[in-house]
Design brief:
By secondary structure, the chain is mainly beta. Helix content is 7%, strand content 56%. It has helices at 2-19, 21-24, 27-30, and strands spanning 36-39, 48-57, 60-69, 72-80, 85-87, 98-106, 109-116, 119-125, 131-135, 142-149, 152-159, 162-168, 173-176, 182-192, 195-202, 205-211, 216-218, 227-234, 240-248, 251-259, 264-267, 280-281, 287-291, 300-305, 308-313, 320-331, 334-343, 349-355. It has a four-stranded antiparallel sheet with strand order 1-28-27-26, with no helix packed on it. It has a four-stranded antiparallel sheet with strand order 2-3-4-5, with no helix packed on it. Strands 6-7-8-9 form a four-stranded antiparallel sheet, with no helix packed on it. The longest helix has 18 residues, at 2-19. The chain is globular.
């Protein structure tokens, strides 16, 4: 009898080992992928507006925008050093009324478009921390967009005579003409000094333009009917992605068009009417962009990988009634976001989140 009990006891222990979670799940498999975490940001004068975010790698990123101070709008610049966000007030015009717009890395320098008391200029920061400015040749009454690459920069906007496309070649400015029928340039981007793209409002609807080093021309991109363009994302590989909205029976839905070097492919991921301006290529190779959250106390992000779209939420924020990531960038193996969070009883102020790292 004692021998039988010993056999039964051994069988029970063996079965327990088989069904035990610790027995079948290795420590490596039990680790969940890193999610979004909150990064503290020194407060600005609320309400604030976030313009752009760019990173050189995991140890350097810059976020731009403007705050609503007592005497009007003031430029706002924040730096990420791989560990923490800090506010930078060393740039020319930091204490004057104005706004900071798009930020981009050009070679070893960081370039920012600065609307300084109504006049436009480009701020340039060297790796050693020195600042310089490149004033625009004329003042525009609206500055629509800016882009910069090695050897060239463009600013588009309008003055009292109409549309203006200004190009800087490192030594001076020239004015470029656009095709007949172009009414307004809504955005511009470039891959090289001789390969620039723009999206425009024309007499025939939204049109994608391309400059090949000689002139701006219609790029002959067949956009979806009744659609507009939010952004054009150029990649060193030659891949190009357009994000925008299509309107059907008064309802808007987001579309993505991807050019692989040979052909265009149009998809309609389940993103509702998401504005795609903040879309980036993540470290995992998928497209990432912030979307409108269905949770007031959490941000929400979409990951689009081919035909598959998944969503993830940022960290919960106590008493938050609106959390809005405004800009997104790849920082090494991480994703960084920068935006605003409105806590109940106060105006929106700055927030930042990171995935990975």
């Amino acid at each position: 009898m004692n021998g039988l009990r010993a056999v039964i006891l051994c069988l029970v222990m063996a079965c327990a080992a088989v069904v035990s979670p610790t027995a079948v799940v290795s420590p490596a498999a039990a680790v969940t992928p890193p999610g979004w975490s909150a990064l503290p940001v020194p407060a600005a004068a609320p309400p604030v507006t976030v313009s752009d975010l760019a990173a050189r790698g995991p140890g350097e990123a810059w976020a731009t925008g403007y705050e609503h101070a007592a005497d009007g709008l003031h430029p706002m610049l924040y730096r990420w050093d791989g560990t923490a966000w800090s506010r930078d007030v060393t740039f020319p015009g930091a204490g004057e009324p104005g706004r900071l717009g798009k930020v981009q890395f050009v070679g070893e320098e960081m370039w920012i478009f600065h609307n300084r008391e109504g006049s436009g200029e480009i701020l340039r920061r060297s790796p050693e921390g020195g600042w310089s400015t490149v004033p625009l040749p004329q003042t525009l009454w609206t500055y629509q967009d800016f882009t910069a690459v090695a050897g060239a920069a463009w600013v588009v906007g309008e003055d009292d005579t109409g549309l203006k496309v200004l190009r800087y070649d490192g030594s001076g400015w020239t004015t470029q003409s656009t095709p007949e029928g172009v009414l307004f340039l809504m955005g511009i981007t470039a891959r090289t000094a001789t390969d620039a793209w723009a999206w425009a409002d024309t007499t025939t609807g939204t049109t994608v333009l391309r400059r090949d080093g000689t002139a701006w021309r219609d790029a002959k991109v067949q956009l979806p009917p009744n659609s507009n363009v939010h952004t054009i994302m150029l990649e060193p590989s030659g891949r190009l992605t357009i994000g925008g909205s299509q309107y059907t029976d008064g309802v808007s839905r987001t579309y993505l068009m991807t050019f692989n070097g040979h052909a265009w492919r149009t998809t309609y991921p389940p993103l509702g009417d998401t504005y795609t301006e903040a879309m980036v290529r993540g470290p995992d190779g998928a497209l990432w962009l912030p979307v409108r959250s269905d949770r007031a106390f959490q941000s929400k992000y979409a990951r689009v990988d081919g035909s598959r779209t998944t969503f993830s939420y940022g960290p919960q924020r106590t008493n938050a009634i609106d959390v809005k990531p405004r800009a997104l960038t790849k920082a090494g193996s991480s994703l960084l976001s920068f935006g605003t969070a409105e806590i109940y009883g106060s105006k929106p102020n700055l927030m930042s989140e990171r995935r990975g790292g």
